[in-house]
Amino acid sequence: MYQQNQVVNKPTAAYWLSLIGGILGLLAAIYVTIVLGLLAYLTLAEYYYDFFDTFALMWIGLGVWMFISSILVIIFARKLNANPMQHTKYGILIIVFSIISGGGILGLIGGILALTYKPQFAGAAPQYAPQYAPPPQGAYAPPPQQQYQQQVAHNCPQCGTMVQPGVRFCPNCGRQQY
Predict the structure, then answer these.
(1) Residue 176 DSSP SS3
(2) In angstroms, rounded to a whole number, what is the distance separating the alpha carbons of residues 14 and 106?
C-alpha cells in the first residue's frame, strides 16, 4: 500500500478552492449572525416582541450553523491536503458541508475537484506521458537517415588550381566545377 508521502501530485486546486470557500462561508456566517440576527433582535424585538424575537433567534441560529459548517469545510480541506489518498472521503464531506453552510460555490467546486483527483505515486510513470515505442516499419516509416560525405578541396580539371568545397566556378579560369 502506498503511503501519503509517496504521492507526487497533491490536490492543490481542490485544497485552495475549498479553503477559500470555507473562509468566505465564515464571513457569511458572521454577517448573518451579527447583522441579520443580532441587529434584528436589538432593534426590532423591543417593538414587535413576539414575531421579531423568534425571527432574530432564527437568524442567529442559522449563522451559528453556517459558522460550524464553514469551520468543518476548512478542516476537511486541510485534511485533504495532508492526506490526498483519502480524497474521496474528504471531497464528499467538503461538498456536503459546503451545501449545508448555505452556498459556498468555491467549496462545492473544490469538493468536486477532490473527487476527480487522480494521485500519481512516486516512481510510477506519468499518467499522460507518451510511452516509448519503436518507430514504425513499413510504408509510413520516416526515411532512414543518410550520411552525407564531407566535401574536400579538389584541383580544377582545366588549370589545376585548388578549388575549395562548395565553390561552383574556378576562381582562376572560371570553369564550372562538378
Answers:
(1) strand
(2) 9
pLDDT tens digit sequence for 62-80: 888 999 999 999 999 999 9
The DSSP 8-state label assigned to residue 6 in this structure reads G
Q: Closest by alpha carbon to 174, among 162, 150, 158, 151?
A: 158
Instruction: Please list, in sequence order, all residues whose beta carbon lies within 8 angstroms of the beta carbon of residue 98, skipping any fewer than 6 positions away.
Output: 18, 21, 22, 25, 69, 73, 104, 107, 108, 110, 111
In terms of residues, how long is the chain? Answer: 178
Q: Looking at this protein, which amino acid is placed at residue 31?
A: Y
Q: What is the pLDDT of residues 155-165, one digit of tens each?
A: 888 888 888 88
Q: CB–CB of 97/76 below 8 Å?
A: yes
- Listed residue (86, 107, 78, 91) closest to 20, CA to CA: 107
DSSP string, 127-169: TTSPPP-PPP-STTSPPPPPPPPPP--EE-TTT--EE-TT--B
Q: Where along the chain do its domains lie?
A: 9-116, 150-178
